[in-house]
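Sequence and fold:
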Amino acid sequence: MKRIKLGLGMQILIGLVLGVAVGAAYYGDPTIEGYLKPLGDMFIRLIKMIVVPIVVSSLIVGIAGVGDAKKLGKIGGKTILFFEIVTTIAIVMGLIIANVVKPGIGIENSGTLAKTNIANYVNTAENMSHHSFADTFVNIVPTNVFDVLAKGDLLAIIFFSVMFGLGVAAIGEKGKPVLKLCEGIAETMFWVTNQVMKFAPFGVFALIGSTVAKFGLQSLIPLGKLVITVYGAMFVFVFVVLGAIAKLYSLSIMNFIRVLKDELILAYTTASSEAVLPNIMLKMEKMGCPKSITTFVIPTGYSFNLTGSTLYQAVAAIFLAQLYGIDLSIRSQIDLMLVLMLTSKGIAGVPGASFVVLLATLGTVGIPAEGLAFIAGVDRFMDMARTVVNVIGNALAAVVISKLEHQYDTKKEEEILRKIA
Protein backbone atom coordinates (compact mmCIF):
# COMPACT_ATOMS: atom_id res chain seq x y z
CA MET A 1 0.00 0.00 0.00
CA LYS A 2 1.40 3.36 -1.04
CA ARG A 3 2.03 5.72 1.83
CA ILE A 4 0.39 9.15 1.48
CA LYS A 5 2.81 11.99 2.19
CA LEU A 6 1.25 15.27 3.29
CA GLY A 7 3.05 18.56 2.64
CA LEU A 8 3.70 21.05 5.43
CA GLY A 9 0.84 23.29 4.30
CA MET A 10 -1.68 20.45 4.46
CA GLN A 11 -0.36 19.32 7.87
CA ILE A 12 -0.81 22.88 9.20
CA LEU A 13 -4.36 23.07 7.77
CA ILE A 14 -5.22 19.81 9.53
CA GLY A 15 -3.78 21.26 12.76
CA LEU A 16 -5.91 24.39 12.23
CA VAL A 17 -9.15 22.43 11.72
CA LEU A 18 -8.50 20.16 14.70
CA GLY A 19 -7.57 23.16 16.86
CA VAL A 20 -10.83 24.96 16.01
CA ALA A 21 -12.83 21.79 16.71
CA VAL A 22 -11.16 21.14 20.08
CA GLY A 23 -11.35 24.82 21.10
CA ALA A 24 -15.04 25.04 20.21
CA ALA A 25 -15.79 21.80 22.06
CA TYR A 26 -14.09 23.06 25.24
CA TYR A 27 -15.13 26.74 25.00
CA GLY A 28 -15.13 28.35 28.43
CA ASP A 29 -13.11 25.54 30.01
CA PRO A 30 -9.90 27.15 31.39
CA THR A 31 -8.20 23.76 31.80
CA ILE A 32 -7.99 23.14 28.04
CA GLU A 33 -6.30 26.51 27.52
CA GLY A 34 -3.86 25.54 30.27
CA TYR A 35 -2.97 22.39 28.34
CA LEU A 36 -2.76 23.94 24.86
CA LYS A 37 -1.25 27.40 25.46
CA PRO A 38 2.18 26.13 26.66
CA LEU A 39 2.54 24.07 23.48
CA GLY A 40 1.67 27.09 21.31
CA ASP A 41 3.96 29.38 23.30
CA MET A 42 6.80 26.88 22.91
CA PHE A 43 6.41 26.95 19.13
CA ILE A 44 6.47 30.78 19.04
CA ARG A 45 9.57 30.75 21.27
CA LEU A 46 11.27 28.30 18.89
CA ILE A 47 10.56 30.70 16.03
CA LYS A 48 11.91 33.69 17.97
CA MET A 49 15.01 31.61 18.81
CA ILE A 50 16.00 31.22 15.15
CA VAL A 51 15.04 34.62 13.71
CA VAL A 52 17.91 36.78 15.04
CA PRO A 53 20.81 34.40 14.12
CA ILE A 54 19.38 33.97 10.61
CA VAL A 55 18.83 37.70 10.03
CA VAL A 56 22.31 38.65 11.31
CA SER A 57 24.28 35.95 9.48
CA SER A 58 22.32 36.20 6.21
CA LEU A 59 22.43 39.99 6.20
CA ILE A 60 26.20 40.09 6.80
CA VAL A 61 26.76 37.61 3.96
CA GLY A 62 24.43 39.53 1.64
CA ILE A 63 25.86 42.98 2.42
CA ALA A 64 29.45 41.75 2.13
CA GLY A 65 28.43 40.48 -1.32
CA VAL A 66 27.31 43.99 -2.31
CA GLY A 67 30.52 45.42 -0.87
CA ASP A 68 29.69 49.01 -1.82
CA ALA A 69 28.11 51.47 0.62
CA LYS A 70 26.96 53.73 -2.23
CA LYS A 71 25.19 50.86 -4.00
CA LEU A 72 23.62 49.73 -0.72
CA GLY A 73 22.40 53.28 -0.05
CA LYS A 74 20.74 53.29 -3.46
CA ILE A 75 18.96 50.01 -2.69
CA GLY A 76 17.96 51.30 0.75
CA GLY A 77 16.52 54.52 -0.69
CA LYS A 78 14.40 52.66 -3.24
CA THR A 79 13.23 50.22 -0.57
CA ILE A 80 12.07 52.88 1.92
CA LEU A 81 10.36 54.89 -0.87
CA PHE A 82 8.50 51.79 -2.05
CA PHE A 83 7.46 50.95 1.53
CA GLU A 84 6.12 54.47 2.14
CA ILE A 85 4.08 54.53 -1.07
CA VAL A 86 2.49 51.12 -0.48
CA THR A 87 1.70 51.68 3.23
CA THR A 88 0.16 55.08 2.43
CA ILE A 89 -2.08 53.42 -0.19
CA ALA A 90 -3.05 50.80 2.44
CA ILE A 91 -4.08 53.48 4.96
CA VAL A 92 -6.07 55.47 2.36
CA MET A 93 -7.81 52.30 1.16
CA GLY A 94 -8.68 51.35 4.75
CA LEU A 95 -10.21 54.78 5.40
CA ILE A 96 -12.22 54.71 2.15
CA ILE A 97 -13.57 51.18 2.69
CA ALA A 98 -14.53 51.89 6.32
CA ASN A 99 -16.34 55.08 5.28
CA VAL A 100 -18.24 53.27 2.53
CA VAL A 101 -19.12 50.03 4.39
CA LYS A 102 -19.65 51.73 7.80
CA PRO A 103 -18.99 48.63 9.95
CA GLY A 104 -19.57 50.55 13.22
CA ILE A 105 -23.04 51.83 12.35
CA GLY A 106 -25.95 50.00 14.00
CA ILE A 107 -23.89 48.29 16.72
CA GLU A 108 -24.75 49.10 20.31
CA ASN A 109 -21.61 49.28 22.43
CA SER A 110 -23.51 48.30 25.53
CA GLY A 111 -24.94 44.86 26.10
CA THR A 112 -24.13 43.21 22.76
CA LEU A 113 -20.38 43.78 22.93
CA ALA A 114 -18.20 42.23 25.59
CA LYS A 115 -15.21 44.15 26.87
CA THR A 116 -11.75 42.62 27.08
CA ASN A 117 -9.03 43.84 29.42
CA ILE A 118 -6.46 45.84 27.44
CA ALA A 119 -4.36 47.00 30.40
CA ASN A 120 -1.34 45.07 29.06
CA TYR A 121 -1.14 47.41 26.08
CA VAL A 122 -1.77 50.71 27.84
CA ASN A 123 1.71 51.35 29.30
CA THR A 124 3.39 50.58 25.98
CA ALA A 125 0.99 52.90 24.19
CA GLU A 126 1.60 55.72 26.69
CA ASN A 127 5.33 55.40 26.10
CA MET A 128 4.72 55.47 22.35
CA SER A 129 2.70 58.67 22.58
CA HIS A 130 5.89 60.45 23.66
CA HIS A 131 7.90 58.68 20.95
CA SER A 132 8.51 60.95 17.94
CA PHE A 133 9.39 59.94 14.38
CA ALA A 134 12.90 61.28 15.00
CA ASP A 135 13.20 58.94 18.00
CA THR A 136 12.47 55.99 15.72
CA PHE A 137 15.47 56.85 13.56
CA VAL A 138 17.71 57.58 16.56
CA ASN A 139 16.83 54.19 18.05
CA ILE A 140 17.91 52.42 14.86
CA VAL A 141 21.49 52.97 16.07
CA PRO A 142 22.12 50.56 18.96
CA THR A 143 24.12 51.58 22.02
CA ASN A 144 24.70 47.96 22.95
CA VAL A 145 24.71 45.29 20.24
CA PHE A 146 24.10 42.42 22.66
CA ASP A 147 21.14 44.25 24.20
CA VAL A 148 19.30 44.65 20.85
CA LEU A 149 20.14 41.06 19.91
CA ALA A 150 18.56 39.89 23.17
CA LYS A 151 15.47 42.08 22.65
CA GLY A 152 15.11 41.11 18.99
CA ASP A 153 14.97 44.77 17.90
CA LEU A 154 15.07 44.17 14.14
CA LEU A 155 15.80 47.74 13.00
CA ALA A 156 18.84 48.09 15.27
CA ILE A 157 19.98 44.56 14.36
CA ILE A 158 19.73 45.40 10.66
CA PHE A 159 21.77 48.59 11.14
CA PHE A 160 24.55 46.74 12.98
CA SER A 161 24.57 43.84 10.48
CA VAL A 162 24.78 46.23 7.52
CA MET A 163 27.72 48.10 9.06
CA PHE A 164 29.44 44.83 9.98
CA GLY A 165 28.88 43.42 6.47
CA LEU A 166 30.36 46.54 4.87
CA GLY A 167 33.33 46.23 7.23
CA VAL A 168 33.88 42.59 6.24
CA ALA A 169 33.85 43.59 2.55
CA ALA A 170 36.16 46.56 3.15
CA ILE A 171 39.01 44.54 4.74
CA GLY A 172 39.21 42.14 1.81
CA GLU A 173 41.14 38.89 2.39
CA LYS A 174 41.18 39.35 6.17
CA GLY A 175 37.40 39.36 6.16
CA LYS A 176 37.02 36.06 4.32
CA PRO A 177 37.22 33.83 7.43
CA VAL A 178 34.47 35.96 9.05
CA LEU A 179 32.39 35.67 5.88
CA LYS A 180 32.84 31.87 5.84
CA LEU A 181 31.78 31.73 9.50
CA CYS A 182 28.61 33.74 8.78
CA GLU A 183 27.83 31.54 5.76
CA GLY A 184 28.19 28.47 7.97
CA ILE A 185 25.93 29.98 10.66
CA ALA A 186 23.29 30.89 8.05
CA GLU A 187 23.27 27.37 6.54
CA THR A 188 23.14 25.80 10.01
CA MET A 189 20.24 28.00 11.09
CA PHE A 190 18.27 27.16 7.94
CA TRP A 191 18.69 23.47 8.84
CA VAL A 192 17.44 24.27 12.35
CA THR A 193 14.49 26.12 10.77
CA ASN A 194 13.52 23.02 8.80
CA GLN A 195 13.48 20.99 12.04
CA VAL A 196 11.41 23.64 13.87
CA MET A 197 8.88 23.68 11.00
CA LYS A 198 8.17 19.98 11.61
CA PHE A 199 6.64 21.11 14.92
CA ALA A 200 4.46 23.75 13.18
CA PRO A 201 1.24 21.67 12.85
CA PHE A 202 1.28 20.97 16.61
CA GLY A 203 2.01 24.63 17.40
CA VAL A 204 -0.83 25.79 15.15
CA PHE A 205 -3.22 23.26 16.71
CA ALA A 206 -2.37 24.58 20.20
CA LEU A 207 -2.49 28.30 19.29
CA ILE A 208 -5.83 28.11 17.48
CA GLY A 209 -7.32 25.71 20.02
CA SER A 210 -6.46 27.92 23.00
CA THR A 211 -7.77 31.06 21.21
CA VAL A 212 -11.12 29.49 20.29
CA ALA A 213 -11.45 27.91 23.76
CA LYS A 214 -10.90 31.32 25.37
CA PHE A 215 -13.04 33.57 23.16
CA GLY A 216 -15.33 31.12 21.34
CA LEU A 217 -16.42 31.40 17.72
CA GLN A 218 -19.60 33.16 18.88
CA SER A 219 -17.45 36.17 19.85
CA LEU A 220 -17.29 36.93 16.12
CA ILE A 221 -21.07 37.38 15.78
CA PRO A 222 -21.57 40.88 17.33
CA LEU A 223 -18.53 42.18 15.45
CA GLY A 224 -19.11 40.11 12.31
CA LYS A 225 -19.47 43.21 10.14
CA LEU A 226 -16.07 44.53 11.29
CA VAL A 227 -14.37 41.16 10.73
CA ILE A 228 -15.91 40.79 7.26
CA THR A 229 -14.95 44.39 6.39
CA VAL A 230 -11.34 43.79 7.47
CA TYR A 231 -11.09 40.53 5.51
CA GLY A 232 -12.74 42.12 2.47
CA ALA A 233 -10.36 45.09 2.61
CA MET A 234 -7.36 42.74 2.85
CA PHE A 235 -8.64 40.73 -0.14
CA VAL A 236 -9.11 43.88 -2.25
CA PHE A 237 -5.70 45.25 -1.27
CA VAL A 238 -3.87 42.01 -2.17
CA PHE A 239 -5.59 41.39 -5.50
CA VAL A 240 -6.03 44.99 -6.65
CA VAL A 241 -3.10 46.98 -5.23
CA LEU A 242 -0.44 44.29 -4.81
CA GLY A 243 -1.82 42.53 -7.90
CA ALA A 244 -1.31 45.71 -9.97
CA ILE A 245 2.24 46.13 -8.62
CA ALA A 246 3.02 42.48 -9.42
CA LYS A 247 1.61 42.86 -12.95
CA LEU A 248 3.66 46.03 -13.45
CA TYR A 249 6.76 43.90 -12.81
CA SER A 250 5.61 41.00 -15.03
CA LEU A 251 4.42 38.75 -12.22
CA SER A 252 1.05 37.11 -11.59
CA ILE A 253 -0.17 37.68 -8.01
CA MET A 254 -1.95 34.31 -8.10
CA ASN A 255 1.26 32.50 -9.07
CA PHE A 256 3.12 34.46 -6.41
CA ILE A 257 0.64 33.37 -3.73
CA ARG A 258 0.91 29.78 -4.92
CA VAL A 259 4.69 29.93 -4.51
CA LEU A 260 4.26 31.21 -0.94
CA LYS A 261 1.34 28.88 -0.11
CA ASP A 262 2.95 26.99 2.80
CA GLU A 263 4.39 30.15 4.36
CA LEU A 264 1.06 31.99 4.08
CA ILE A 265 -0.85 29.14 5.74
CA LEU A 266 1.68 29.14 8.58
CA ALA A 267 1.55 32.95 8.89
CA TYR A 268 -2.26 32.90 8.97
CA THR A 269 -2.60 30.15 11.54
CA THR A 270 0.06 31.51 13.91
CA ALA A 271 -0.71 35.22 13.30
CA SER A 272 3.07 35.68 13.40
CA SER A 273 5.17 37.18 10.60
CA GLU A 274 8.31 36.02 12.40
CA ALA A 275 7.19 32.41 12.00
CA VAL A 276 7.88 32.61 8.27
CA LEU A 277 10.73 35.15 8.08
CA PRO A 278 13.52 32.58 7.45
CA ASN A 279 11.47 30.62 4.90
CA ILE A 280 10.34 33.76 3.05
CA MET A 281 13.95 34.91 2.61
CA LEU A 282 14.94 31.46 1.35
CA LYS A 283 11.91 31.19 -0.95
CA MET A 284 12.56 34.61 -2.51
CA GLU A 285 16.17 33.60 -3.23
CA LYS A 286 14.90 30.44 -4.93
CA MET A 287 12.51 32.60 -6.95
CA GLY A 288 15.33 34.74 -8.35
CA CYS A 289 16.08 37.54 -5.86
CA PRO A 290 19.75 37.92 -4.84
CA LYS A 291 20.68 37.26 -1.21
CA SER A 292 21.96 40.83 -0.78
CA ILE A 293 18.46 42.18 -1.49
CA THR A 294 16.27 39.58 0.26
CA THR A 295 18.29 39.77 3.47
CA PHE A 296 17.96 43.57 3.56
CA VAL A 297 14.49 44.24 2.14
CA ILE A 298 12.44 41.57 3.93
CA PRO A 299 13.64 42.13 7.54
CA THR A 300 13.41 45.93 7.02
CA GLY A 301 9.88 45.46 5.73
CA TYR A 302 8.90 43.86 9.04
CA SER A 303 9.18 47.36 10.54
CA PHE A 304 8.46 49.69 7.60
CA ASN A 305 6.13 47.76 5.30
CA LEU A 306 3.33 46.44 7.52
CA THR A 307 0.63 47.04 4.91
CA GLY A 308 -1.86 44.62 6.46
CA SER A 309 -1.45 46.19 9.89
CA THR A 310 -1.82 49.78 8.66
CA LEU A 311 -4.87 48.85 6.59
CA TYR A 312 -6.45 47.24 9.66
CA GLN A 313 -5.60 50.22 11.87
CA ALA A 314 -7.35 52.61 9.47
CA VAL A 315 -10.50 50.44 9.35
CA ALA A 316 -10.52 49.91 13.13
CA ALA A 317 -10.12 53.64 13.85
CA ILE A 318 -13.09 54.58 11.65
CA PHE A 319 -15.10 51.66 13.10
CA LEU A 320 -14.58 53.01 16.64
CA ALA A 321 -15.50 56.54 15.57
CA GLN A 322 -18.75 55.19 14.08
CA LEU A 323 -19.36 53.08 17.20
CA TYR A 324 -19.22 56.21 19.38
CA GLY A 325 -21.16 58.34 16.90
CA ILE A 326 -18.16 60.59 16.17
CA ASP A 327 -18.30 62.21 12.73
CA LEU A 328 -14.69 62.57 11.60
CA SER A 329 -14.12 65.37 9.08
CA ILE A 330 -11.88 64.92 6.03
CA ARG A 331 -9.25 67.00 7.85
CA SER A 332 -9.41 64.72 10.91
CA GLN A 333 -9.06 61.63 8.72
CA ILE A 334 -6.05 63.14 6.97
CA ASP A 335 -4.55 63.82 10.41
CA LEU A 336 -5.29 60.21 11.36
CA MET A 337 -3.55 59.00 8.19
CA LEU A 338 -0.45 61.07 8.90
CA VAL A 339 -0.27 59.93 12.52
CA LEU A 340 -0.67 56.27 11.51
CA MET A 341 2.11 56.67 8.95
CA LEU A 342 4.45 57.75 11.74
CA THR A 343 3.35 55.58 14.67
CA SER A 344 3.27 52.34 12.67
CA LYS A 345 7.00 52.42 11.97
CA GLY A 346 9.53 50.43 13.95
CA ILE A 347 7.29 48.64 16.46
CA ALA A 348 7.00 45.21 14.82
CA GLY A 349 8.58 43.48 17.81
CA VAL A 350 6.00 44.84 20.28
CA PRO A 351 3.37 42.26 21.32
CA GLY A 352 -0.04 43.31 19.97
CA ALA A 353 1.67 45.95 17.82
CA SER A 354 -1.48 47.04 15.96
CA PHE A 355 -3.34 47.50 19.25
CA VAL A 356 -0.48 49.54 20.68
CA VAL A 357 -0.42 51.78 17.59
CA LEU A 358 -4.17 52.38 17.81
CA LEU A 359 -4.04 53.12 21.53
CA ALA A 360 -1.31 55.69 20.91
CA THR A 361 -3.13 57.19 17.92
CA LEU A 362 -6.88 57.38 18.59
CA GLY A 363 -6.66 60.20 21.14
CA THR A 364 -5.12 62.53 18.55
CA VAL A 365 -8.43 62.64 16.63
CA GLY A 366 -10.75 62.49 19.66
CA ILE A 367 -11.74 58.79 19.50
CA PRO A 368 -11.96 57.13 22.98
CA ALA A 369 -9.12 54.57 23.16
CA GLU A 370 -11.20 52.49 25.61
CA GLY A 371 -13.26 51.40 22.61
CA LEU A 372 -10.50 48.96 21.72
CA ALA A 373 -11.66 46.84 24.65
CA PHE A 374 -14.76 46.01 22.58
CA ILE A 375 -12.78 44.55 19.66
CA ALA A 376 -9.91 42.94 21.58
CA GLY A 377 -11.75 39.62 21.72
CA VAL A 378 -11.80 39.26 17.92
CA ASP A 379 -8.45 40.91 17.28
CA ARG A 380 -6.72 37.53 17.00
CA PHE A 381 -8.95 36.54 14.07
CA MET A 382 -8.22 39.81 12.27
CA ASP A 383 -4.53 39.58 13.17
CA MET A 384 -4.34 36.35 11.16
CA ALA A 385 -5.50 38.16 8.01
CA ARG A 386 -3.27 41.20 8.41
CA THR A 387 -0.24 38.96 9.01
CA VAL A 388 -0.78 37.26 5.64
CA VAL A 389 -0.97 40.64 3.88
CA ASN A 390 2.21 41.81 5.65
CA VAL A 391 4.05 38.68 4.44
CA ILE A 392 2.84 38.98 0.82
CA GLY A 393 3.75 42.69 0.75
CA ASN A 394 7.28 42.12 2.05
CA ALA A 395 7.97 39.16 -0.24
CA LEU A 396 6.71 41.16 -3.24
CA ALA A 397 8.91 44.10 -2.22
CA ALA A 398 11.99 41.86 -2.55
CA VAL A 399 10.99 41.02 -6.14
CA VAL A 400 10.27 44.67 -7.02
CA ILE A 401 13.59 45.97 -5.65
CA SER A 402 15.49 43.10 -7.33
CA LYS A 403 13.92 43.99 -10.68
CA LEU A 404 14.56 47.71 -10.18
CA GLU A 405 18.23 46.84 -9.58
CA HIS A 406 18.25 44.50 -12.63
CA GLN A 407 19.40 41.63 -10.42
CA TYR A 408 16.35 39.37 -10.73
CA ASP A 409 16.92 35.89 -12.17
CA THR A 410 13.88 35.10 -14.34
CA LYS A 411 15.16 31.56 -15.01
CA LYS A 412 14.82 30.73 -11.32
CA GLU A 413 11.28 32.15 -11.35
CA GLU A 414 10.36 30.00 -14.36
CA GLU A 415 11.79 26.94 -12.64
CA ILE A 416 9.88 27.43 -9.38
CA LEU A 417 6.63 28.18 -11.27
CA ARG A 418 7.12 25.01 -13.32
CA LYS A 419 7.40 22.98 -10.10
CA ILE A 420 4.11 24.27 -8.69
CA ALA A 421 2.22 24.01 -12.00
In short: The chain is about 75% helix and 0% strand. The first helix runs from residue 8 to 25.
